[in-house]
Amino acid sequence: MFARVFKTIAITAGLTATILGGTQAVAKDITQAQRLVTIGSSTTELAFALGAGDRVVAVDVTSKHPQQALKLPKVGYYRSLSAEGILSMKPDVLLGTDEMGPPAIFNQLQAGKVQIEQLPAGSDVDNLKRRIELMAQMFEQPQAGQDLWIKIDNQLKAAAKMAEGKRPRVLFMLSHTGTPMMGGGDTEIDTLITLAGGINVAAEYFDSYRQVSAESLLTMQPDILIVSASSLADKSVEQLLSVQPGLAATPAGINKRVEVVDGTLLIGGLGPRTGEAVLELARKFYPASPSLMTVQAN
Hints:
This protein starts with a strand and ends with a helix. The chain contains 13 helices and 14 strands. A hairpin with a 5-residue loop joins strand 9 and strand 10. The longest helix is centred in the middle third of the chain and has 21 residues. The protein is α/β, with parallel strands linked by helices. Helix 5 packs antiparallel against helix 6 and helix 6 packs parallel to helix 12. It is globular, with a radius of gyration of 20 Å. Helices cover 37% and strands 19% of the residues. It folds into 2 domains: 136 residues, Rossmann fold; 140 residues, Nitrogenase molybdenum iron protein domain (Rossmann fold).
């Protein structure tokens, strides 16, 4: 199912389990761990969604959901963590993905007898389902994991029913100052756009995130522009487009079709709000869909 090698590292038990894509993963039981530090927005949200929120004592700065996470101490950015900050929280377990780091801190955490659990990072729905399964195993909450996945799957199916007619060409802008940074293929936003029935036009040109010139934006001709909520925090759509003439001249700019997503949905893999986010995007992509009334009624 996955191309990469998945690693689950249990420091205190001296166990290193290497899990290859397509094989059955065995998650370390952490039900006895009373102090968890969760790293990455999606990891933190999944821990709370699966009933372990009362054991989370600290998070990274990207973890802003649910509301309880905002009140917890922060141990840095998920790719540049501080071993000292983590150790000061006296955790039993550090829980995140294989994107957290830097790797050098793991030796210090090992010396401090901290158990480290790294789940497979990825930008597709199969990866989300797998991480839900693994974390549900870790917390011995199989029913909660199953219920969460059913909820997300039903939301994705509802969104798919709304995608009728011509698919809109969509572009996500990560940064808007200077030469804009756009989201291409193999990204969380690419998955959200596709599941909501749109075409991520940047994915036709590149993967990951890349700066795109005004000339290239005109070639892409997006119908809809998506930005993170922080991009519009202190400015209007008109102000945003005024600093990006290339975007202003596209169908999205001319019609001022600019939609907003929560940027924390796009960090560290997809999370439990994925179905909700896809459904909301589908409503924006297909506002006249006959299925919209049915979805709203439910």
